[in-house]
Amino acid sequence: MNKEKQNCQHKTSAVKLYFHYISVKIRCMMQYKKSFILTSLGQFLSSFNAFVGIFFLFRRFHSIAGYTYSDVLFCYSIVVMEFSLAECVARGFDSFSRIVRQGTFDRIMTRPRNEILQVLGDNFEPTRLSKMLQAIVIFGYGISRSGTDWDFIKVITVILTVICGTAVFCGIFLINASLCFFTMEGLEVINIFTDGAREYGQYPIDVYGKRMTRFCTFVIPYTLVQLYPLQFITGRSDNILFAFLPVAALLFLLPCYALWRFGVRKYKSAGS
Amino acid sequence: MSLLSIYNKWKKYISFFKLRFAMGLQYRTAAIAGIATQFVWGFMEIKVFYAFNTSDPDSFPMGFEQLASYIWMQQAFLALFMTWFMENEIFDSIMDGNICYELCRPIDIYNMWFARSVANRLSRALLRCAPILLVAFFLPEPYSMTLPPDVFTFILFIIAMILGMTVTAAMCMLVYMLSFFTVSPQGLRIIFSMTAEILQGIVIPIPFFPPGVQRIVELLPFASMENVPLRIYSGNISGGAAAKAMLMQMFWIIALIAAGKLIYRSASRKITVQGG
Amino acid sequence: MIVVKNIRKTYRVTKRNAGFSEAVKSFFKRDYETVTALDNISFSINDGETVGYIGPNGAGKSTTIKILSGILTPDSGECLVDGRIPWKNRIGHVARIGVVFGQRSQIWWDVPVVDSFELLKDIYSIPADIYSRNKNELTELLDLGEILRTPARQLSLGQRMRCELAASLLHSPDILFLDEPTIGLDAVSKIAVREFIVKLNRERKTTIILTTHDMQDIEAITKRVILIGKGKILLDGDISEISGKGDIDRTVAELYRSYEI
To answer: Are C175 and C209 in contact (CB under 8 A)?
Structure first.
């Protein structure tokens, strides 16, 4: 056996390690095919009821605060896409209380890698992608009913919105995970901002009034990944700024990360 | 049966209820957080309907203050009617076969599970309803909750609520019993809960369904859960319509319990024959 | 070289009495209690030493291990492991140590063990040549052969512990922390694990720090014992001080009694 120092060597890149984690995770899941298929199916159906609700309401009402059926479908599908992608990527944050309680976080701390990379990689959750699939179907349905003129910038806007919206939801999951360092259980309150945002983000946020819109712009930047890009895409506004506003939502990740650092420090001083 | 033996029989359910209640109290932050969550959800829900009402008031099928009361009562008593709140313990014991030990004991499993799930639902609801209702009463118009029109309505509401909870519990029992016969109890549970969520009026209240759909849905057992008590409380249905709805609830209680017991009997026969 | 100087560590815990009314009361007001887990602990361990760290449950053993492995930060005191402060620069520190928690697994449950090893290779950034040499050596020494291709959940406890040991040594750490490595193992596996650790220490000069309740482990593996009780070090000396006086379990039980821990 040897004992040479490995200080001079290169570190395996974080991206490569992340994909290695995912490949192990998928191999693990394939051991339980039936459960995998059922969970995926359940996820596919899980937000179907919300769609039925919208469908029924728009048989009765013609519009809500100036928005049409297809506008709402559009909003709904974008938010579900963002949410399900975030659940898939950041499931580790979402179930972080279990990770702390079972002592898995101690194990993570004894490995020479960034904690977030390990938590995310080790808890990748591909079953959530089936919910994404459902959202894409409804997105297509919504588009087919609306008379939107698509151009290159609008396509880019949709992609940016979904990516940055996913980041916003990941940020909220990260807050929830950080709180586990303080309460052990995580807080159900966070559901307001995750499940609640998914549920109520199906309508353009200004439906909920001015104060709510302001809160969802400056405290948690939901409007930047929902309302404003929608204004641009549906042609309600031709302010090109709205097309790239989703990128500004990424700033939200900074305070989330700061809270996480603070939580890790607390964990190191208090233990589990 | 003497009074004492009835008391003894119920004592264990009461102590089970107390235990659950104490357990609920222990998770203080969780309880407060849960209440806050439900409050926000109720508020957002009302906001959506408010926006619909402003955009298209002629199509609104009920008074707005009726809707507000409906939503707040729904949030406050969520635990009584949510079909997602089923007990994993029961599913597990069915799946891993531990159920045969319970079947050997000289008690009626159907009754035991029924009482347990009622105790569970009650303790959860009681823990959470008061703060939500209290705040909901003091909200500004048009979001605030209102009192029922008269005492008689309130009494009807209480009765309908008990009936509704019983229908919910009986319905869940049916799912437990059916899961003896399915390959995937979890799959059954998901499909059932999703169906119940939309058809009992949790996603949107039944009066908001398209009229044709509404007529059919009101005949289903799902409409006998939260739909009846909440609409009686808010004054959306009264008099003959209320009486009819409550009769419907009683019918479904009898039908669902009978069906559940029937399946229970054949399930226990199946288990004793196969040996689990 | 591990140097620990005047380490102190306290925890705050909630307490609640039994009973329904107490549950209601604690909903509104909670009482906290401060528990001292480590009370001015000092010791030093040289490279290549084998140390048994013993004491009753709750004495502060795992708190010490957690501090040394960079998981916990002490309230006060100094600690240097090969010149590094464990809780600062965590990543640099843990790259050079190995930790085995007997009660927790570090290999992935549902994939063949070798897949876990491959992942650890990327986690620890082990160069390919060193990885394959270490893997081959460990496979031979721990007799892992066929086991490597089996998913971990299908392994017996003894087989799994051997895999755990290999997993924590792939990156050739200088120090190995073992937290109850033989718990629940049958006699054959226990002996295999002990023999392996002794050999590891002899050939690789890996520093071994072992916490356990199994005194046979201590006797077989360590040359030095540190006894901790109620957060204080009560005894630090050669294994001969407690072994060789008849039944070692009795000797230790006697020791615990004499210190009232």
So the answer is: yes
Helix (H, G, I), strand (E, B) or coil at B243: helix
A27 alpha-carbon distance from chain centroid: 24
Element (DSSP H or E) covering residue B139: none
Instruction: Examine residue A118 and state whether it is found in any structural domain, yes or no.
Output: yes
Please state the ipTM of this predicted complex. Answer: 0.87
Q: Check residues A36 and C117 and name the one with the higher pLDDT.
A: C117
**b/e A68-103 (16+ beta carbons within 10 angstroms → b):** bbbbbbbbbbbbbbbbbbbbbbbbbbbbbbebbeee
Listed ranges A13-22, A95-104, B96-105, C182-191; the one with the highest mean pLDDT = A13-22
Q: Is residue A1 included in any domain, yes or no?
A: no
As a whole number, mean pLDDT of residues A27-55 equals 86
Per-residue pLDDT averaged across C194-223, rounded? Answer: 92
Domain range for residue C227? 46-106+168-258
Asked if residue C92 has pLDDT above 80, the reply is yes
Chain-chain contact of A66 with B61 (C-beta, under 8 angstroms): no
Q: Tell me, yes or no, if C10 comes closer than 8 A to chain B by beta carbon.
A: no
The values of phi and psi at residue A8, to 5°, are -85, -10
Whether residue A212 contacts residue A205, with contact meaning beta carbons closer than 8 Å, is answered with yes
In chain B, residues with a C-beta closer than 8 Å to the C-beta of A46 are 194
Q: Is C15 an 8 Å CB contact of chain A?
A: no
> Is A9 a domain residue?
no
Instruction: Residue C27: list chain B partners with CB under 8 A.
Output: 25-26, 28, 31
Q: Which residues of A touch C58 (CB under 8 A)?
A: none
C27/chain A closest Cα distance in angstroms:
15
- Per-state percent for chain B, helix, strand, coil, to nearest 5: 80, 0, 20
- Contact call for A1 and C200, based on CB within 8 A: yes
Asked if the structure places residue A158 within a domain, the reply is yes
Q: Is the pLDDT of residue B246 over 90?
A: yes
Domain for residue C212, yes or no?
yes
Residue C63: which of C75, C51, C47, C52 has the closest Cα?
Answer: C75
The contacts found for C189-194 with CB under 8 angstroms, 24 or more apart, are: C189/C156, C189/C157, C189/C158, C189/C159, C189/C161, C189/C162, C190/C214, C190/C216, C190/C217, C192/C142, C192/C143, C192/C158, C192/C162, C193/C158, C193/C161, C193/C162, C193/C165, C194/C220, C194/C221
Q: Which tokens go with B223?
A: 């409409």
> Which amino acid appears at position C1 of this protein?
M
Q: For residue A163, is pLDDT > 90?
A: yes
Domain CATH for C82: 3.40.50.300
Q: Flag if A109 and C70 touch (Cβ within 8 Å).
A: yes
- Tell if the CB–CB gap between C125 and A103 is shorter than 8 Å: no
Domain count of the fold of chain A: 1
Tally of structural domains, chain C? 1
- What is the end-to-end Cα distance of chain B in Å, rounded? 34
Whether the bond between C112 and the residue before it is cis, its omega within 30 degrees of 0, is no
Alpha helix positions (H), chain A: 14-29, 33-46, 48-60, 69-89, 91-94, 96-101, 104-109, 115-122, 129-145, 152-183, 190-193, 195-200, 210-218, 227-233, 240-248, 253-270
- Residue A31 domain boundaries: 14-270
pLDDT band of B219, cuts 50, 70, 90: very high
Is residue A119 within 8 Å of residue A100, measured between CB atoms? no
State yes or no: pLDDT of C79 exceeds 90.
Answer: yes
Residue B113 · residue B90 · CB < 8 Å = yes
Of chain A, the end-to-end C-alpha distance in Å amounts to 36
Question: Which residue intervals of chain C are DSSP H helices?
Answer: 20-28, 61-68, 90-94, 113-123, 128-141, 157-167, 187-204, 215-221, 248-258
Q: What's the pTM?
A: 0.88
